[in-house]
User: Fold Ribosomal RNA large subunit methyltransferase G from Metapseudomonas furukawaii.
Amino acid sequence: MPIFATPFAHLDLVRQPEQRDDPLQAFDAADEYLLNHLHEQGVTPDARVLVLNDSFGALAASLAPQVRVTSSGDSHLGYLGLVRNLARNGLEAGQVAFVPASEPLVGPFDRVLIRVPKTLALLEEQLIRLQGQLAPGASVVAAGMVKHLPHAAGDLLTRYIGPMQPSLAVKKARLLIATPDARPAVTSPYPTRYQLDSPRLTLVNHANVFCREGLDIGTRAFLPHLPRSLAAVRAADLGCGNGILGIAYALANPQAEMTLVDESYMAVQSARENWRAALGDRPADIRAGDGLAEQPEDSLDLVLCNPPFHQQQVVGDFLAWRMFVQARNALVTGGELWIVGNRHLGYHAKLKRLFRGVEQVAATPKFVVLKASK
Assistant:
């Protein structure tokens, strides 16, 4: 495994979730560029450094022995990566203060290092939240690999922070260096809301929620075909997003005991608010987590899932496969996993490798709804 070497530290880092013979690294040239730039600019041990969207802790773990570090992001897997990589390199978890993206930051910060996220709405929300959190003379520097760095990211820095200067590209990475200046206070446009006709709901969506402006077409194909039961079914909405699958199932099944889990803190925040609006004080376990990794075996009767096909910029079915395995482990014998997926992803064949029986419940030209029985 390559060592992440910068002027601040030499670290042995792993991605989360870990894969055997994983060809991908837990860091890239943009992380290296950010830290080299910070070192060149100079930073004192008492400086407060805020790191945003540090994928697996490469930035925060590098800085932890040198300065006072706060890390904030929307990925629970990213948080688990930070904790794992701190321990892996002999550092204490307490050396980095972690703040989920769903919670407010408490500054002031002298330096802000940002990995530009895939969802620019998340970046916009994070920049708005920096209002009043920057110390005099603070610097704000964002970075990304050139192929993943949209022009709009620089526009957001200019709008909310101050004049922005892009750097030259180094190893296919680029910095966006913003100079903070006085700006009038801005009200965040997030969360957004949209309405559903069936079930009739208004759904709240915080900045990093998938398909924030309207129901995604996969879920739209799934909703009319959700299983029905009036029994006290123990059910989970795995990768719940704003919670719509779990909420719709719970509305139709008053005795269902529901678990909603997602690795995005903002998704969980949205799901909690939407559950409360739709179902009041009805109990539910709504949590950020690594899928169903923490769910006891044989503890669920039903799992509903609209699986993701990417992790940050990396496209593939690894996360979906992992969710299928987790669902199988958590289900009782005879329990069922119901999923929706693009036809071309071939989930039917994959599920047959894990489950006793797999059948197609419904189909559209683009999507299939599948039921897999343990």
User: Anything to note?
Assistant: The radius of gyration is 22 Å.
